[in-house]
């Protein structure tokens, strides 16, 4: 008997996320301010905001009692949902925003690794969802911790520690690009 299931899950559960323009993470391309197409939130104290996340799809087949799982994982930047206040930004702030995008890529790699290493049982849909939810929770926590410790880039020493840490982690998970 053959079973086939495909699921698409996007990081930020924006109602129109499927219709949004997205840009995939690329180690050879850094963000530029031209990538930020959204409108700044007037009430925010921040000078910029990066909306990035993970999307994935998977399918599986069971044949003769053996399951074959196929999946794809992407890290995306959403230009229309990302914004900046032109008169207040600097290259330093842009690098802070790039690091947010890099953190999302790190967790895309962690999701690829987890998918490859998990032996899925009789309920793969729920099991894949549980793996994703765990990775997503960790990703959101790291994003928040980064902003908290760097004080949204105002603490330069913490900012530099985070940039180094994220770069090292991307390298450590390099085989999961």
General description of the model:
- This protein has helices at 91-117, 124-150, 156-172; strands at residues 7-10, 23-24, 48-49, 52-63, 66-77, 83-84.
- The chain is of the alpha+beta class.
- β4 (52-63) and β5 (66-77) form a beta hairpin.
- The radius of gyration is 18 Å and the shape is elongated.
- It starts with 6 loop residues before the first strand and ends in a 5-residue tail after the last helix.
Main sheet: strand order:
1-4-5-2
* Quaternary structure annotation: single chain
The major pleated sheet works out as:
4 strands, antiparallel
Order of helices and strands: EEEEEEHHH
Low-confidence stretches: 1-18
Percent in strands: 15-25%
Helices, by number, come to 3
Features:
single chain, 177 residues, alpha+beta, 3 helices, elongated
Compact summary:
With 177 residues, the protein is of the alpha+beta class. The protein contains 3 helices and 6 strands. A hairpin with a 2-residue loop joins β4 and β5.
SSE topology sketch:
Elements: E1 7-10, E2 23-24, E3 48-49, E4 52-63, E5 66-77, E6 83-84, H1 91-117, H2 124-150, H3 156-172
């Amino acid at each position: 008997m053959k079973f086939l299931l495909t699921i698409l899950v996007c990081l930020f559960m924006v109602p129109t996320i499927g219709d949004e323009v997205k840009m995939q993470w690329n180690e050879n391309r850094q963000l530029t301010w031209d990538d930020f197409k959204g409108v700044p939130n007037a009430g925010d104290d921040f000078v910029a905001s990066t909306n990035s996340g993970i999307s994935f799809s998977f399918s599986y087949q069971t044949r003769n009692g053996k399951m074959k799982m196929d999946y794809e994982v992407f890290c995306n930047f959403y230009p229309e949902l990302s914004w900046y206040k032109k008169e207040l930004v600097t290259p330093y702030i842009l690098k802070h925003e790039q690091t947010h995008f890099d953190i999302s890529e790190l967790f895309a790699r962690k999701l690829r690794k987890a998918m490859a290493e998990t032996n899925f049982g009789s309920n793969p849909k729920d099991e894949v969802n549980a793996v994703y939810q765990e990775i997503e929770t960790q990703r959101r926590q790291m994003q928040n911790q980064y902003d908290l410790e760097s004080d949204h880039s105002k603490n330069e020493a913490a900012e530099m520690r985070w940039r180094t840490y994220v770069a090292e982690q991307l390298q450590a998970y390099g085989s999961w690009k």
